[in-house]
Amino acid sequence: MARSNFAIKRQTGFATVAMICFALLYIPIFTLVVYAFNEGNSVAIWQGFSLRWFEAAWNNEKVVDASIRSVRIASVAALLATIAATMAALATTRTRPYRGLTFKYAFINQPLMIPEIVTAVALLIVFARIKVATGYSGLGYLIAAHTAFCIPFAYLPIRARLESMDLTLETAAADLYATPWKVFTRVTLPLLWPGIIAGLMLAFVISLDDVVITEFVKSGGQDTLPTYMLGQLRRVVTPEMNAISTVFLAISIFIVTVFFFISRRRT
Amino acid sequence: MASAAEIAEQAGRQDVRNRWLLTTPALAIIFLASIGPLFVVVLYSFLTPGPYGDVKWEFSTDAWVSVFLQRDIFDDTLGIADAHLSIFLRSVRLSFATTVLTLIFGFPTAYFIATRSEKTQALWLFLITIPFWTNLLIRTFAVQEVIRNEGLLNSFLVWSGLTSAPVQILYSDWAIAIGMIYVYLPLMVLPLYASMEKLDFRLVEAGYDLYATRFRVLRRIIIPLVKPGIIAGSILVFIPSLGAYVTPRVLGGGKQMMLGNLIELQFGAGRNWPLGAALALTLTVIVTVALLYYVRYVAEPERRHG
Predict the structure, then answer these.
(1) Nearest Cα residue in chain A from B268
(2) Which H or E run includes B137?
């Protein structure tokens, strides 16, 4: 057995490249976080530890305003998208193929297939007309736009969960004379919860992160946190941006971690 | 009395009707705030620009003509629109470079993850997924800080003596390429990993038994087997690169434009909405062709073979 310790999976240099990749992925993020705690005005020269930029961001009315708006839009859009996506997932899984099923898949995934900038200008054109015609210029436009592109993201984990679910329990409940509604609320829904929660969180993060569509759809004074930051990046950047980014990162990573554990419990 | 078959058929029809009702909210929202507006873009691309933006309701094909051609101001002849063409070419070139480089970096990374033990695989995957789900703008901003003149990269170059003064990287094509590689790398690694995870290493072993070198095994066995993943990753990176807006805006500094920025310009300072609409549709067509290629040659055959 001369070859017993010959590693068949090994490829020369691959591990090194992988390590370089991971390092390159995380170095910029770490640098960003470190300089959020810089005492000086610079995002490049370290002048000692301080929390002053977090304080500055906290006291910056525009930042607080934009953050609240971001969370408001993301909550409503994620909720609406998850409800619509749950219904759509129930209607497109666990069935023999029927006419229009492929059409539905394509339709629901459409927002993923068109470049964001195209959807953004399309919405700009249409919403500009509606704004003039109705005089309404509230957050409704942003919520509608966000709900639409959140649906495919919410749909994915819910559909995956439904497809891995066992039909026998529901059949058993129906055999025991449960009404369809009772079967749904007492059996299907409790089993589906992890998928729904995962979909909701995914939709929330996607909405929270959006820059392009929001930038084109928003009316004056409707900055979300990402569009506010995009505007600030044109000016001289202070560590306040790093502080905002750090908090944003922490929230995203937290949600993704929770999502990761929920969707891993599937098996 | 209805026969059993009739009853079953009616129940089936009822079921399909219910399934349509359940899908209606999702379809309606996507139609209203995503697909429907695209048709309006088609309409707008055939209208005349208004003096202060928006459009005048007069039919015109000028917008489509000026996507690639421009009228000479002196003798009124049509020539190639150099400005647009150069932005088109830059977008394609940068997207192509991004795709190739993310493949070069992503392939070994995905292979590395796929060959770990099951437990550590989850951890490495998680490390790839985190940047993927963090805000694109923040990641672009992080890159900006690293490559700026007084940033980490230049500090290192000067400190190590490789260069005597900082190199201007920011606001160049290089900056856009670095930013896009950084931002889209996870999109390459994830599909590559998905196809490598299914790789049957008995074939690799057979290759070695027949005295193949490591490189030969890679080239003749591994790469052909994970080709669907390579194509999927390439398309997943190429498509958003081509439509990129945030990365070139932040790292290109407004001068080095890509297609996305050219489209935006028409709706802002350019005040030529029909042209912007025509450019947006051109981008959509390119992306759709790439997607159809993917469905035809990757997704479909894979499903057929199970």
Answers:
(1) A216
(2) helix B136-147
